[in-house]
Amino acid sequence: MLSNIRIVLVQTFHPGNIGASARAMKTMGLEQLTLVTPRQFPDEEASRLAAGAEDIVDNARVVDTLEAAVEDCVQVIGASARLRNMPLPHYDEPDIMARDLVSHANEAPVALVFGRERFGLTNDEIRCCTHQVSIPANPDYGVLNLSQAVQVLAHEIFRAWRLRPDSGFNTASPRSAPLPTQQQMSQFHEHLHRVMEDVGFLTQPHARTEDHLHALFTRAQPTRKELSILRGLLNAIEQKTHPDHSADQGEK
């Protein structure tokens, strides 16, 4: 289960923070590290501060975009201050986040995403996530180092995993069908955008309609079968509006 949990660091500036984060991960049984365009990597400072977790640093996957880092994941949680202009589901308590993440990791890969040291994740990067989580801290000084944030949330994940087998700590209902990957959800949103434009639904560009629909489907967490039904509905609309065009068969 823990092998399905991925820690993603976006554009890390100081290579030492990569090593310190790897050390935090290893103490909590996590080994899957993905780096999105780190400023300097590989680097001796990263290996030095890993202090026994050099294998995680050495095996880290480096990618160019956050989309590439999480495209196969069924749940992606961005660690950030709560952005009220982003209508994504938000975990106010990290332990609840950890229970859900561990539950979904039973089915498929999941990811916990951390942003840059100075300003975290951008709005566009948050849109690649299915949820947000914040770490409760002193309101007068809630500043955490990147590796400290990784340590806190990794500990919550390890605790949820450790307690799960014997105590029924996780109360999430088991799913009867797998969730779609983020790549499949992205394809659905592209299809939805195309149809809404085609039928003239997107007439107010500043209404943030697509942001709200994105949040709606994120909260709903449709299964792969349900997503296939939605893609079939979009195909039917396209066939009605363009009967001479062959339909996109969607994700099955």
Automatic annotation (TrEMBL):
GO MF, one example: RNA binding
Superkingdom assignment: Bacteria
Alphabetical UniProt keywords: Cytoplasm, Methyltransferase, S-adenosyl-L-methionine, Transferase, tRNA processing
Record-level GO BP terms: tRNA nucleoside ribose methylation
UniProt-listed Enzyme Commission number(s): 2.1.1.200
Localization of this protein: Cytoplasm
A cellular component annotation (GO) from this entry: cytosol
Catalytic activity: uridine(32) in tRNA + S-adenosyl-L-methionine = 2'-O-methyluridine(32) in tRNA + S-adenosyl-L-homocysteine + H(+); cytidine(32) in tRNA + S-adenosyl-L-methionine = 2'-O-methylcytidine(32) in tRNA + S-adenosyl-L-homocysteine + H(+)
All residue ranges annotated as the tRNA/rRNA methyltransferase SpoU type domain in the record: 5-154
Location, primary (coarse class): cytoplasm
Family to which the UniProt record says this protein belongs: Belongs to the class IV-like SAM-binding methyltransferase superfamily. RNA methyltransferase TrmH family.
Task of the protein: Catalyzes the formation of 2'O-methylated cytidine (Cm32) or 2'O-methylated uridine (Um32) at position 32 in tRNA.
NCBIfam families according to UniProt: rRNA_methyl_1
Assembly information from the UniProt record: Homodimer.
UniProt-recorded name of the protein: tRNA (cytidine/uridine-2'-O-)-methyltransferase TrmJ
